[in-house]
Write a structure and sequence with these properties.
single chain, Jelly Rolls, 2 domains, eight-stranded antiparallel β-sheet, 1 helix, 37% strand, elongated
Amino acid sequence: MRFLIILFTLFEMSNVLAQQHSVRFYGNGFGDIDRIKIPLDNPHKPVDVSLDFTLDFWMKALPGQNNANFCDGTQWYFSNIMIDRDVDGPGDYGDYGIGMGDRKIMVGVEKLGLGPVGLCGSSTIDDGIWHHIAVERKASNGAIKLFVDGVLEDEVNTSSATGDISYRNNRPTAQPNSDPFLVFGAEKHDYPGSLYFNGWLDEIRLSDTLRYSTNFTPSTAPLATDNRTAALYHLNEGSGTTIHDALNISNGYMNVGGSPMGPIWSTDTPFNCSNTVSNANDAGPGSLRNAVLCATSGETIIFAPSLAGQTIELNSGITIDRNIQISNLNTGTINIVANNTVVFETNINIAAHFTNLTIITNHNSLPAFKNYGILQLTNTTLRRNVNTAHTVFANYGVLQCNGNVNIQPD
């Protein structure tokens, strides 16, 4: 092997099934409480999307608990606000927000000084059911789209909200405790007449691209990071007040208060998750991909006895963006094969442990594994199904090998 193995102590990770979570807001309102705050500035954070972007998330609300009685996206700041990236005063770039009014989704985007552009959905979404919401905004012509559960419900093809609408770096403000933040669950400035969201949020992702051109089917599993992810909040912490970005760049925090006290962690989520891989499918319930997407930090993914000696074939690679173990506890290895791609890639500072697996790529030049994090391999083989001169393991982080580890050829 032509790489340096650095021995280290990988921190202990739990062997019990970790619980999926969401965040429950109570609409407590005024006083900078019952909200999540994500800093945008000093230094600039990727979550402060500026040009083309998509914002998607899951939400749930109960009938009668959100009282904005109109749906007009040009006045989104008077809705029951879920997402607020407003700017105090006249501003200089732009702003946007998403809320609920007349039991529907409202979206507002503004290039400040040119007046807000608004959208209004058609579905009743305070029905006690989880709904997927996606909002797209195109910088070149100001086009905006609103998808509810994958269905396009409203759009404008052009608008005045063009160009950069980010929060300007180092912008002077009279409200430094609210202005340079992205806020979930509340109107960030507690502006008189604004309302607050009473309900649940989960899996909030901001992307620096337009993800949805037509109607689509929302994922049945939590989201994964990719190279167009600006920030992703799984909201699975389950305790404390720190909110983690899956990229570990744009982290935030809860401000808790009110009666009932909110926000709180909830085990009510839109996903039916398991840490046991029960089939060899590429995706969907019971698949390895689904288990990884569902896993919370510290969780161990295991394999059903029926998969012993079997092959799991992936059509695309899997990114590991949280601290997990993937352990085959059965007698005999399990083969995980990717067609023409990297099989696994660990993000920077992420600790991962693979046990009793054979990880194979069919690609002529890409490695089977890219490690940017803290990787531990136990009784595991990395290989390529064809002989080439290219490395099968690309290690840019830290590696520990235990037991019988084969990296071939390399």
